[in-house]
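Let us walk through a complete example step by step. Step one is to write down the protein sequence. Step two is to encode the small molecule, zinc ion, as a SMILES string so that its atoms and bonds are unambiguous. Step three, shown after the inputs, is the structure prediction itself.
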Amino acid sequence: MKTDRKTKNWILLFLLLLCLGALGVFCARSLSAPAVTARVSVDGECVKVIDLRAVTLPYEFEVSSELGRNLVRVEHGCIAVIESDCPEQICVRQGFVQESGIPIVCLPHRLVIELEDGE
Ligand SMILES: [Zn+2]
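Step three: the predicted structure of the complex.
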């Protein structure tokens, strides 16, 4: 009888831990899910879509059109224009953005980098 009860307790404990573990994974996922997709467009045309969460090593790429040139840096979870030959340099001064709703805009080059919550 005693051993049976002990075994039951162990099974209950095990199940409890399993539930907590699953809950933990679920919470971690929903917490780390400011799913960020960066949509780079020039003159209203989307030229690049980047899943910023999938970025492990930072990299840079150039967006150039007849209007000008922008150097974009991509890091895990954030994105920035680090170089531009536009006169105002507003896009460069904006620095890294990592939240949706705040797009990087380079007006003279008609470059827009929007961040979206993506699933
Ligand atoms: Zn600019």
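Step four is interpretation. Strands lie at 36-42, 45-51, 59-65, 68-75, 78-84, 104-106, 111-117.
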